[in-house]
Amino acid sequence: MGHFCTGVTVVTGMGAETPMGFTCQAFSSLSLDPPRVVLCVSRASVSWPAISGGGFFCVNVLAQQQRALSDRFARTGGDKFHGVDWDLSPDGAPRLAGASAWIDCRVHTEHDGGDHLVVIGDVRRLAAPADPRPPLLYHRGRYARLDDTP
């Protein structure tokens, strides 16, 4: 499966008292009408139960220069938000500064996906900065860069 190139996202939300988040490569647009996304979350995730309990999450599409954020949010435990520049999205989920785009979602459903949960989210709003930022990519077990050279 590593031969399929993916973008890298950090899914964030608010836990009972603190912001929560995790790196997620298994993310995609699902439907335009109604607007929905799909993501796959490990059943071992500590962050997802706290995020889903709030009902809302934000998908932060990481930019090429945000490898360190991807690595940080891929780890279990610790204060992943310490020293990270972020604010709250309109629905109250952490929105990471410098991302290529952000997508505010409401949890629609969760389905059994074996060792993962398949989460469907209703898109409530989304935005990207006016100055386009190249995305962070992952391919064959490592980060990759988009080469727009003709």
Question: Helices and strands in order, then pairings?
Answer:
Blueprint: E1 6-7, E2 9-14, E3 19-24, E4 27-32, E5 35-42, H1 47-54, E6 56-61, H2 67-74, E7 86-88, E8 94-96, E9 101-113, E10 116-127, E11 137-139, E12 142-144
Antiparallel strand pairs: 1-11, 2-3, 2-6, 4-5, 5-10, 6-9, 7-8, 9-10, 11-12
Structural summary, described in words:
This protein is mainly β and 150 residues long. It is built from two helices and twelve strands; from the N terminus they run E-E-E-E-E-H-E-H-E-E-E-E-E-E. The strands form three sheets. The protein has a seven-stranded antiparallel sheet. Strands 1-11-12 form a three-stranded antiparallel sheet, with no helix packed on it. It has a two-stranded antiparallel sheet with strand order 7-8. A hairpin with a 2-residue loop joins strand 4 and strand 5. Residues 1-145 form the Flavin reductase like domain. It comes from Streptomyces tricolor. InterPro entries: Flavin_Rdtase-like_dom, NADH-dep_flavin_reductase, Split_barrel_FMN-bd. Pfam families: Flavin_Reduct (PF01613).
Tell me the overall shape.
Answer: globular
Q: Average pLDDT across residues?
A: 93
- The residue ranges in which pLDDT falls below 50 over 5 or more consecutive positions are none
* Oligomer category: single chain
Radius of gyration from CA coordinates: 15 Å
- Report the total helices: 2
Order of helices and strands: EEEEEHEHEEEEEE
In percent terms, what proportion of residues is strand?
over 45%
Largest sheet: 7 strands, antiparallel
Instruction: Give the class from helix and strand content and strand pairing.
Output: mainly beta
Give a count of the beta strands, DSSP E runs of length 2 or more.
Answer: 12
Keywords: Oxidoreductase
Protein name: Flavin reductase family protein
InterPro entries: Flavin_Rdtase-like_dom, NADH-dep_flavin_reductase, Split_barrel_FMN-bd
Domain Flavin reductase like: 1-145
